[in-house]
Design goal:
The chain has 9 helices and no strands. The chain has 187 residues and is an all-alpha fold.
């Protein structure tokens, strides 16, 4: 019997002596790259919304309606919602505390996602923000249950669960800084 026949077909000379754990760890960064790219892109969506509403860059927010020009980042959207919870959300439109909470949420979630830090906290806060926006748009026009808000929330949960901040981000360094039990919620 030759050596080639004794070796199972799934093993080659290069992999038969390698440690399986080392092989998995070597492949991990390559597999983690798509999630890291998704994390950065999703974070950019949140940061873009923050900057457009703050400065009125002329895309979704006209310069004269910018937050810095005295406009309300929530008045336009929440003031015009129709549907199941319209009364509740319309009453919140333009309230300074709601404007600040919304804008700080966009900034914090976007920054955390882009940098790859505090992904658990970003997933919780971002999911809460997305659920509220989903509720404000009920009933949905194109699908009875799912829209982009639910997809964004699910993506943030996946990113946090897979430690997507460790690739192309500061996740490992952030984990070291928040290793004490009192700060673990910040991971």
């Amino acid at each position: 019997m030759s050596t080639m026949q004794e070796t199972p077909p799934t093993m080659t000379a290069s992999t038969s002596t390698a440690d399986p754990v080392q092989l998995r760890q070597a492949a991990l960064p390559r597999r983690a790259r798509p999630l890291a790219i998704l994390r950065i892109l999703l974070g950019s969506v949140f940061l873009w919304a923050f900057f457009d509403k703050t400065f009125g860059l002329g895309f979704a927010t006209a310069p004269e309606k910018a937050w810095l020009a005295g406009g309300s980042p929530t008045a336009g959207y929440l003031g015009s919602v129709e549907g199941s919870f319209a009364g509740l959300f319309q009453s919140l439109a333009g309230a300074p505390v709601v404007d600040w909470a919304f804008m700080l949420g966009l900034l914090a979630v976007g920054t955390a996602l882009v940098l790859g830090i505090a992904l658990r906290a970003a997933a919780v806060g971002g999911t809460a923000l997305m659920i509220l926006m989903w509720l404000s748009s009920l009933p949905l026009k194109s699908n009875p249950v799912i829209d982009e808000h639910i997809v964004y929330a699910a993506a943030m949960i996946v990113l946090a669960a897979t430690h997507a901040g460790n690739t192309f981000g500061l996740g490992r360094q952030w984990s070291a800084l928040t290793s004490s039990p009192a700060l673990r919620w910040l991971r």
